[in-house]
Amino acid sequence: MPRLSLSSRLALLFAGCTAVVSLFAGVLFSRASEAHFIELDQQLLDSKLIGLRRALQDVQASESETRLTDELSRQADLSLRITGADGQRWYDSSIKVPPDLPQQPGLSTISNDGMDYRVLNAPLYPDKPDTPQLTLLLDITHHQHFLQRMQHLIWLTVGLSALATALLGAWAARSGLRPLRRMSAVARGISAHSLNARLPEAQMPPELAEMAHSFNAMLGRLDDSFQRLSAFSADIAHELRTPLSNLLTHTQVTLTRPRPIEDYREALHSNLEELQWMAQLVNDMLYLAKADHGLLMPKREALELADESDVLLEFFAPLAEDAGVTLSREGHARMEGDRNMLRRALSNLLDNAVRFTPATGSVRLSIIDQPHIAQVSVENSGEGISAELLPRLFDRFYRADPARQEGSSEHAGLGLAITQSIVRAHGGQIHCESAAGWTRFVIELPKGV
Questions:
Q1: For residue range 39-68, what is the model confidence (pLDDT) as tens digits?
Q2: What's the chain's Rg over C-alpha atoms?
Q3: First-to-last C-alpha distance (Å) of the chain
Q4: Which of 10, 93, 119, 225 is least surrounded by CB atoms within 10 angstroms?
Q5: Which of 418, 329, 315 is nearest to 379 (CA)?
Q6: Is the entire prediction scored with pTM above 0.85?
Q7: Element containing residue 442 per DSSP (H, E)
Q8: Under a CB-based contact definition with an 8 Å cutoff, are residues 133 and 121 in contact?
């Protein structure tokens, strides 16, 4: 079976609710009307009972029957039966009185030959034990017909109300769901070339404004991711084009004429350097792909960050000395992590710091031991980075310097992206600050000990 639309469901729900409410109200009104008629009949029969008792005070009197007839003639739909204490029938005011009547005292309702009666049984002399019984019958057929017509009207009203509510509910639901159809139209029109489409949040009802905001935020994330992916693909092509072109050109030139064996050996060595750079680039890309899919599983071993930092500073000391840069380290902390991965992350930061620090500048590595976090910062003096570039520093192949430096893997723009992946694999986070002539990369890692 085809599933009902949301508009149809809402219309049926409105119709059902209206039918239930109308039926409940109709039943209450019918019960109230019936109780009201019973109360009126009770009052009428009680008043007639008093008159009849007065007329029958002396049943031996010759005028009693006349007075009884006069009393009954005032109410055309009222009949009377008098029964002796022994159950013998003494008197019936009408031949239409049913032969079998209830014997219990009080008010009751019976039906006979299509007629409905309200019956009241009461003693003629309430203060005497053996006394004749008076049975008053009030024809209420017209009351019952009225109640039946009212019940039919209730059912008709319930049906018409449900139908009208269903039609109006369908129209209201369709009108109210127009923003959802607009969202659906926007979603259908979205493609790789139209990710900049947005829903007008200001025109949405409050119930859908949050959904529209989330939908627009999702489109914004998709647009940003698609732009990054497009740029990423272009950057890969750009990075590989130059070494491939160098390999092709160098090989073609080498093969243009016969050469000595030394020339071929030199050409192979030159090609090997290019191939090694390309292999390193591919390895870095595979490493980042593993990070994207959560496949980086760092080992957990106890590390002293001060010792690991000193090993790296010792490695970069010759390079810093040639560049006239001073290296320093302060602080210590212990944590659990992967030694090789953390060394690679810190090595990338120190390499960038040394390369971008001017002569006579300094690079400082600081370690702060906090209760649950080990904070490592690498900062260097020199020209700062503008605030609008800071969020993109960890993008792949991104360089703050627009002039591309090609020919070495460490300059491919993947170092900071790899560092961020390593930090995240350890459950930490990294950010960059740049102000007052200093650029600072801060890593926060859970200690896990």
A1: 888 888 888 888 777 777 655 445 566 667
A2: 50
A3: 59
A4: 225
A5: 329
A6: no
A7: strand 438-446
A8: yes
